[in-house]
């Protein structure tokens, strides 16, 4: 007996009074990748693989050699600089001086002379030849809407103010609302029902 509880016969059958097969039939779990419940959705599973074993023909030196940070995949990256070195060796040769050449005028040219421009008076036929002046030619206009070679910009003209609805208009002389005839509503709207006798 526990407290106010007393043993009594139950009013109806309960499961504890009947025998069952026990945990013989188990429901597959919903966690994990193997033996998963086929009626439930299974999330993707990822596996961690170990490191691959080194190849037999690998002959890399490993981390024993230190690569400087200035060495990139395109080569060594250094700032532009000038090298300081000694003067180059110059071979001294005996060359002729200015007094070794003769500057006397020769009797005839041994080489071709370059073209020279000479100054002379204009020929009489050319001097008396009449030529047209600047006013002879007429060029097309470059300013305005109708031009031949240039693109004309938009032109705006100034006109006087209209007399209608102006500041000097006398509004007392304009027609009022009673000056226009009254239009029947049946002409432009749905006609109302009418009765005849």
Features:
SHIPPO-rpt, single chain, Outer dense fiber protein 3, little secondary structure, 2% strand, CIMAP, 197 residues
Textual characterization of the structure:
It is a single chain. This protein is mostly loops and 197 residues long. It has one helix spanning 124-127, and strands spanning 71-72, 75-76. A hairpin with a 2-residue loop joins β1 (71-72) and β2 (75-76). It is flat. It starts with 70 loop residues before the first strand and ends in a 70-residue tail after the last helix. The mean pLDDT is 77. One of its GO terms (cellular component) is cytoskeleton. This is Outer dense fiber protein 3.
